[in-house]
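Provenance

Sequences were taken from public entries as deposited. Structures were produced by running a predictor on each sequence independently, with no templates supplied. The record for WDR34 protein from Pluvianellus socialis is shown for reference.
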Amino acid sequence: AAPRPLPWEPAERAVGAGGAAMFADRTAPGADVESVWRSARSARCEAKSCQTGKISTVETAVQSHSSQDAGVQTDQSKDAVQDFQQEVQADYTGLLSFLRKVEDAVIKELNKNWKSRAFDGFEVNWTDQNETVLCLHTLSYPEAQDQNLQVTSVSWNATGSVIACSYGRLDGGDWSTEKSYICTWNLDRRGLNPQHPDLVVDVPSSVMCLAFHPSQPSLVAGGLFSGELVVWDTGRTDDPVVWRTGLTDDTHTDPVYQVNWLPDAQHRNQARLLSVSTDGKILVWREERDGRLALAEGFAVVAQQIPRGTGLKKFAWGEAAVGVTSLSFSHFDPRVFVVGVEGGYSLKCSTAAETLALHRTGSSVPLRAPAELAFSPHGGPVYSVSCSPFHRQVLRINAGPANLFLSCGTDGQAHLHSMLQTQPLVSLQLSKKYLFCVRWSPVRPLVFAAASGEGNCNKCFCSVGDVHLFDFEKSSQKPALSLKQAAGEHPVYCVEFNTKQTRLLAAGDATGTVKVWQLSSDFTEQGPREMSHLEQLASEITD
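Predicted structure for WDR34 protein:
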């Protein structure tokens, strides 16, 4: 008999030797084997997803096991309200009797405090204390730096958020034809780019000085090397020029080294523009509708008409004009101002002067001689003067801090003067060579800042420059702090305090850089007796 084929073998294998099919093809059913493990697991409902044994857990409360609700705004019952009113019921009869007894004593003490000067000028400072001086911003315009232009002046606008700088040249070059710039940065703007000013204005001549309008934040005035004055509106990007003097017989014949905005007594909403120049003239300009600045009044400083104080040497220039480099108005009397001149003197002047100046140049208005008193000179030209902004509402006659001013010059000294005497109250040697700018703090009666540079300067060939912060409360002979403005041999030409954001101080230097410093609380918070200290300093030295 033939062997029986396996179910999965092909049919050919089931054929015998004779070739006849002995068996037919068929498919065998599959065989099932039931899993005993799976049925047992299902019956017990055991979880076998991991190999570890069962983990036992217990929840334990970490807070107090007991709690109590307290209602804080629920209505009280009438009985509770009555009990509370009975508890706070005041003895008005006894209170009235007490107030009558102490009335005289209280009024006496109030009157005493009212007359006290212990807290004059003191203001509570609610801002955070800052114990260090920090450099917040380093601003520059690369195109001006590529031309080796210097920052000649800086100014804050009326809101205190925008800083402007003027570019020019103070150390040589073809000043009259070289293009320069004014640039502005809004420090409150998001995404401030220190090397990309918000506004750049091209100017055909070096800009020697700059001043924002005191109440209109977009207006800024500049004095040029050519002797012209120009007023720009920083809100107009296409043609920002609003007013200008042009080149006329009234225009300065020398560079303009300072501009100031003055209130117009006849028109409250307008301001006049004052300019000083080394041609010896101090001119006041009014705005005209056709975009011109017209001469309203003027003064001329002539050597022969300068009063000589006791012990002061005579001016050697005869009737020659005395070059004016700087000016500062008294914060006590708007008619009084101080000028610094190239001869090294500071002069007390008055806008009420009536004497005509011995000035031979043509002018559309008569020029007057403003000088009333000459102070003891520096060892070289005076570059900056600054009157104290602090005074009392009621001053003793011919005394008090309202009559103080600072001056500085090429001898590296800062002089503290009283307008009542020719000799300085204090002479401070802050630099070995030159001081270019001095500014009294707007919030600290005993603090001022000075900009210095060293080297052989003809306004100027200089080197290392610092910003000196001086505090008479700490020392009357040396700076409280000296800030290094720039690396290398570069002078600092200008400094300006921010009168709105009083912690900010801006300084411009010969590298074309403006640094904005954040002052520490030591330089911005007035002490309770600081005004008295300043008055005492002036009176003690005067006596």
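The chain has one domain: 134-308+317-539.
Confidence is low (pLDDT under 50) at residues 11-20, 392-401, 455-463.
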